[in-house]
Amino acid sequence: MAKNCLLNGLTFDRIIYNFPHADFSFKNKTRKVQISRNQKLVRMFLENAKKMVNKDGEIHISYKLCGFFLAWDLETLALNCGLSMIKEVKFRLNDYPGYSTKFGYGGDKNFDCQPSNTYKFRLKKKERKCGTN
């Protein structure tokens, strides 16, 4: 996204990614592979978002509070990308007017987004390139 010609040079106060998920086409893979693939997606998002957020801006990621998602270890991913946690808050759908949850496999079906939290991060003073987890 940082290299998108329509967004070239733009920076933002907030960059939000609600419910990232790599996709369901690999559900026959092991849990470890599924987690690794989702961690890579989040790392790539964070790497790009860092280039596009104002120096005092925030990067928000919302995701469900269940074992599979928690195994991504979002806080460590963000830390390894040079971000520090500002706070964690309960996800409230009404905070996003016009937003609706959708399964990512081609349907128009909503998913139940509760229980979920939003994690808010900012750039560390001395940022570093995202490392692998």
TrEMBL record:
Pfam families: BMT5-like (PF10354). InterPro entries: BMT5-like. One of its GO terms (cellular component) is cytoplasm. This is 25S rRNA (uridine-N(3))-methyltransferase BMT5-like domain-containing protein. GO terms for biological process: rRNA base methylation. Residues 8-102 form the 25S rRNA (uridine-N(3))-methyltransferase BMT5-like domain. PANTHER family: 25S RRNA (URIDINE-N(3))-METHYLTRANSFERASE BMT5-LIKE DOMAIN-CONTAINING PROTEIN (PTHR11538:SF70), PHENYLALANYL-TRNA SYNTHETASE (PTHR11538). One of its GO terms (molecular function) is rRNA (uridine-N3-)-methyltransferase activity. It comes from Kingdonia uniflora.
